[in-house]
Amino acid sequence: MGFLPVSSNLDLWYNFFNFFPKAPGKWRKLWLGANSKYVSTDGNDFSSTSSKVSSVSVPQTPRSEGEILQSTNVKSFSFSELKMSTRNFRPDSVLGEGGFGSVFKGWIDQHTFAASKPGTGMIIAVKRLNQESFQGHREWLAEVNYLGQLYHPHLVKLIGYCLEDEHRLLVYEFMPRGSLENHLFRRGSYFQPLSWSLRLKVALGAAKGLAFLHSAETKVIYRDFKTSNILLDSNYNAKLSDFGLAKDGPTGDKSHVSTRVMGTYGYAAPEYLATGHLTTRSDVYSFGVVLLEMLSGRRAVDKNRPAGEHNLVEWAKPYLANKRKMFRILDNRLEGQYTMEGAYKAATLALRCLSMEAKFRPTMDEVVTALEQLQEAKDNGVIQSNPSTGPRVRRRSTGDTPHGRSPAAYPRPSASPLYA
């Protein structure tokens, strides 16, 4: 989400920090303090945001940095506290890295939230912003703004933040099984392929998270839905993370939000790429891409594939609507785990989400309903993957036994960001 100082020009200050990336913290602090009132870069004020599952009344989304930090229901950590909890940000504490910065494993007391000795208390994930990133500060603030007020079983929990001199950090609940991206695409004994049943469970959980954001009470467009932003807890419950690009949805009689095109190659909706017009249906398209990744076991963009198969959506679309050809795009590691009808319904749902015309895509509430029906029917019998070849031997997948385990691995960049 982008913020523009009322009394300043965004490009001027953006260029200032590009040319002087090592600007002393006091100058950054001075600028932020002198320009504490913000409006959205598309000219719209923040709309009010609320949560169905929150036990507190969420106030109208604030407009200034100070108000955002004061209105959140999370802890303000000191830099020294987080330094202690992560053992001084030791390299062997790194859980993952991204454009924002690095994510470190830490420990705090589960009652007082004070830093505790490694191995004691509650495990946390600490995301540390690269100090040179001005764009990152805006995304950091957006993350505090949204996750500091929204609560849902399928949104990652923000425990606190740190804003001290040039330091900007975010503290989250620890997600033991890391990102969906790693479970789908990383190979090795620690990452057994997810079973069909678990893929449906993860898809449904992520869909519920998006549906909550799109609800009339919340009205938030996520804008960066992808496998690396879907984290899994110990029971493979999916939770959306990284709200740095989230935007308030259109209000009143407006049909969309106009904004700079930002996101990740391979996931962004075509109309958003073409016009910069953002709607909740833009998120639905991204969900369709992720669902297709889960069905196929292929990345949205993979230059290592043969010519004609680099872009997953372009390659797979011709097969999705054909009940006999559909099996060509399904992950062969799932052989024998799904019914023909179930696989076809999942493929058809992905195709609807990927419609070129936004108005023909389902809402996320409709997606949730469809996935719930699929999950209810998944145990009604398993038949062969390909109707022309007979039964196949079922391969072992994570989730086939209650002891399937894999190590924590937090998201790494899966594709290039889009900056218009």
UniProtKB/TrEMBL annotation:
<feature type="region of interest" description="Disordered">
    <location>
        <begin position="44"/>
        <end position="64"/>
    </location>
</feature>
<dbReference type="InterPro" id="IPR050823">
    <property type="entry name" value="Plant_Ser_Thr_Prot_Kinase"/>
</dbReference>
<dbReference type="InterPro" id="IPR008271">
    <property type="entry name" value="Ser/Thr_kinase_AS"/>
</dbReference>
<keyword id="KW-0472">Membrane</keyword>
<dbReference type="InterPro" id="IPR001245">
    <property type="entry name" value="Ser-Thr/Tyr_kinase_cat_dom"/>
</dbReference>
<dbReference type="Pfam" id="PF07714">
    <property type="entry name" value="PK_Tyr_Ser-Thr"/>
</dbReference>
<feature type="compositionally biased region" description="Low complexity">
    <location>
        <begin position="405"/>
        <end position="420"/>
    </location>
</feature>
<keyword id="KW-0723">Serine/threonine-protein kinase</keyword>
<keyword id="KW-0418">Kinase</keyword>
<keyword id="KW-0547">Nucleotide-binding</keyword>
<keyword id="KW-1003">Cell membrane</keyword>
<keyword id="KW-0067">ATP-binding</keyword>
<dbReference type="InterPro" id="IPR017441">
    <property type="entry name" value="Protein_kinase_ATP_BS"/>
</dbReference>
<dbReference type="GO" id="GO:0004674">
    <property type="term" value="F:protein serine/threonine kinase activity"/>
</dbReference>
<dbReference type="GO" id="GO:0006952">
    <property type="term" value="P:defense response"/>
</dbReference>
<dbReference type="GO" id="GO:0005524">
    <property type="term" value="F:ATP binding"/>
</dbReference>
<feature type="region of interest" description="Disordered">
    <location>
        <begin position="378"/>
        <end position="420"/>
    </location>
</feature>
<dbReference type="GO" id="GO:0005886">
    <property type="term" value="C:plasma membrane"/>
</dbReference>
<comment type="similarity">
    <text>Belongs to the protein kinase superfamily.</text>
</comment>
<dbReference type="InterPro" id="IPR011009">
    <property type="entry name" value="Kinase-like_dom_sf"/>
</dbReference>
<feature type="compositionally biased region" description="Low complexity">
    <location>
        <begin position="47"/>
        <end position="58"/>
    </location>
</feature>
<dbReference type="InterPro" id="IPR000719">
    <property type="entry name" value="Prot_kinase_dom"/>
</dbReference>
<feature type="binding site">
    <location>
        <position position="127"/>
    </location>
    <ligand>
        <name>ATP</name>
    </ligand>
</feature>
<keyword id="KW-0808">Transferase</keyword>
<keyword id="KW-0611">Plant defense</keyword>
<protein>
    <recommendedName>
        <fullName>non-specific serine/threonine protein kinase</fullName>
        <ecNumber>2.7.11.1</ecNumber>
    </recommendedName>
</protein>
<feature type="domain" description="Protein kinase">
    <location>
        <begin position="89"/>
        <end position="374"/>
    </location>
</feature>
